Amino acid sequence: MAANIIRTQVGIVGAGPAGLLLSQLLHLEGIESVVVETQTRKHVEERNRAGVLEQGTVDLLKAAGAGDRMRREGLVHHGIELLFNRRAHRIDLHELTGGRAITVYAQHEVVKDLIRVRIDAGGQILFEVGDVCLTGLDSGAPSILFQHAGDAREVVCDYIAGCDGFRGISRPSIPACVLRFYEHVYPFAWLGILAEAEPASQELIYANHESGFALLSMRSPSVSRLYLQCRPEEDLSLWPDERIWEELRRRFTTDEGFHLNEGPLVQKSVTAMRSFVTEPMQYGRLYLAGDAAHIVPPTGAKGMNLAVADVRILARALAWRYRTGSSDLLASYSDTCLRRVWRTQHFSWWMTSLLHRAAGDDEFSYRRQLAELDQVTTSRAAAATLAENYTGLPFDFPGEQP
Ligand code: FAD
Ligand code: PHB
């Protein structure tokens, strides 16, 4: 075979959490894969995004052999705070779910760990590829065509996993007439900062304030991650550091005298908020996973966790196919994933609508939110629903294959 043609079992487009974890899970099943990624290794290892890992994500990363550093450095949280009417209310995730927790560990650290285990195991990840294009999706031998280090190359495989995020080429490679899209764009965004400041709280604080939503999260015992609701078209140049701190101080004010720790900002960004689902998540021999197939607003901290849940299902379906010859689990891949996807869409939308103020929202909407927050923080049943969804639906969620 010509040197520019690589033959493998599964071709994976995208070295984000979905693509890398899939490659590792397949490796553990004895299945070969090649990952192609447009960005540099440094870029994907430094891209600051998600921070909250569900219990099931943590367990799967450990089982995949990528959990050692997360075990040492991840911050295990047993609760979160909801702040409204100038008072913080704790939701005891651990107690309400019979012992489940979340772990705060940055997505780019997960990516670093996965790249390391893949490379240590001899896995192939081709960074800095260009002009990626998928062909033969409805044939028995699809391929990924791309440029790499000045050469035209091709990965010929049995199956392709489209793990290339919301703006990748996998979803647009499917004929538009076979897909349906469901979308909701929110009339607000998040202005996010990373600050060299000790987190002012041990646990995450989600705040509903008359001026809009704010979130206190963290990356380590010395780095805070903070967000505040802003307009989708917000111009960052209008937000000098002092204005950001002033707005954060306002939104985190409590009658108990909560004090926000401040420090130098190391990053500022604006993130749009959208809910998006593609149905089905498969066409021919191409299987979409993660953000390539769906997007949730970040309020429920679900995006990366959903990507992980998809590839867990896909790895099992592929393993079943190679072990037994049966494509049954591959055939049900999309339906199996979509059940969790829609449950998670609902939860993320609900958290978002509970905590944000849209321009033009009247006083009635605000009072309604306060009543719902009152219920969530005083009714055990309502708090348990939040806790169950926030820590993550179990992997043996009814409807998923064993
Ligand atoms: P990605 O991480 O987007 O990876 C896709 C990869 O494909 C990228 O490396 C990209 O460079 C590559 N690629 C793109 N096009 C091509 C191509 N043509 N060829 C080859 N490669 C390509 N989720 C949570 O679970 N918890 C949170 O707390 C959370 N917070 C968030 C906060 C913010 C500010 C943002 C922006 C997101 C947050 N998310 C969160 C969402 C989470 O980051 C995403 O859901 C997650 O990155 C999805 O992983 P993925 O592997 O599917 O896609
Ligand atoms: C984060 O730490 O980046 C984070 C935490 C919780 C969210 C979203 C983002 O809901």
Q: Tags for this entry?
A:
binds flavin-adenine dinucleotide, binds P-hydroxybenzoic acid, alpha/beta, 402 residues, 21 strands, 6-stranded mixed β-sheet
Tell me about this structure:
The chain has 402 residues and is α/β, with parallel strands linked by helices. Helices cover 35% and strands 28% of the residues. A hairpin with a 2-residue loop joins strand 16 and strand 17. Helix 1 runs parallel beside helix 6, helix 1 packs parallel to helix 8 and helix 11 packs across helix 12. It is globular. The model has no long low-confidence stretch (mean pLDDT 96). It binds flavin-adenine dinucleotide and P-hydroxybenzoic acid. P-hydroxybenzoic acid binds next to strand 16.
Tell me the structural class. alpha/beta
What's the end-to-end separation, in Å?
39 Å
Q: Characterize the main sheet.
A: 8 strands, mixed
Helix content: 25-40%
Name the ligand types: flavin-adenine dinucleotide, P-hydroxybenzoic acid
Shape: globular
How much β-strand is present in the residues? Answer: 25-35%
List unreliable stretches of 5+ residues. none
Overall number of strands: 21
**Number of H- or I-type helical stretches:** 12
- Strand order across the largest sheet: 7-6-15-16-17-14-18-21
What is the gyration radius calculated from CA atoms? 22 Å
Mean pLDDT: 96
Q: How would you summarize this macromolecular structure in one to three sentences?
A:
With 402 residues, the chain is of the alpha/beta class.
List the helices and strands and how they pair.
Elements (H helix, E strand, L loop, with lengths): L4 E3 L2 E4 L3 H12 L4 E4 L4 H6 L5 E2 L1 H9 L4 H6 L1 E3 L2 E5 L2 E5 L1 H4 L5 E3 L2 H14 L3 E3 L3 E6 L7 E6 L2 E6 L2 E4 L17 E16 L9 E5 L2 E9 L2 E8 L10 H11 L13 E15 L2 E2 L2 E3 L5 E2 L7 H22 L3 H4 L1 H23 L7 H16 L1 H12 L11
Parallel strand pairs: 1-12, 2-3, 2-13, 3-9, 6-15, 13-20
Antiparallel strand pairs: 4-8, 5-8, 6-7, 10-11, 11-12, 14-17, 14-18, 15-16, 16-17, 18-21, 19-20
The chain binds flavin-adenine dinucleotide and P-hydroxybenzoic acid.
